[in-house]
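User: I'm writing a short report section on ligand binding and want a predicted complex to refer to. Could you take this sequence and benzoic acid and write out the structure as tokens? A short remark afterwards would be nice.
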Amino acid sequence: MEERQEIQMNVMPRIGDQAPDFEAMTTKGKIKFSEYAQDKWVLLFSHPADFTPVCTTEMSGFAKRKEEFAALNTELMGLSIDSIHSHLAWVNNVREKTGVYFDFPIIADIDMKVAKLYGMLQPNESETAAVRAVFFIDPSKKIRLIMYYPLNVGRNMDEILRALKALQVSDENGVAMPLNWTPGDKVIIPPPKNLDEMNQRLEDTSCERIDFYLCKKSL
Ligand code: BEZ
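Assistant: Sure. The structure tokens for the complex follow:
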């Protein structure tokens, strides 16, 4: 019989939860999360380790598209289980070698406190390094979307930006986003909740209707 691996289970934050608060040392000084980026979205993301190849490409990806995140009222915050000295040396090294500067706070989570709080430590993947997590946190500090990637596969920056934009457009318009939605595409009108609404929807000529439960419109 297959032996069951013992896993130290953390309570994992879930979509809809308030983002757990913490205080941490970062490359931009000490930050109390609940006081950070007031009235803004925050992307809190982890990488396994400084001075590793995939992580370098990912962090450079975040840094290069910082203006697109800023245009979406979004601040970035990285994390790994490395020291401040390691972070500073890595940031400087990447700047010297490539000209890309990681100008956003990176948490030095040497005691793994924040990684454990956010379920970024997944021991069957690695006991010493955080997986590649991204928490999309809205201005009320509610967790709205979570991505987890393993150590050997880098994330997709286009998808991170697309998902962030989709959340924001969904909130602003009370609509849902279909498969592969990108800005400019039609959006989904929430389905009717009772028979009256269903009958109204069946008469509605203003939307593209497949049936009463699947109607799209342009914004
Ligand atoms: C990387 O970023 O290349 C990496 C980090 C940890 C484990 C494997 C790959």
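A remark for your report: Confidence is low (pLDDT under 50) at residues 1-8. The longest strand covers residues 74-80.
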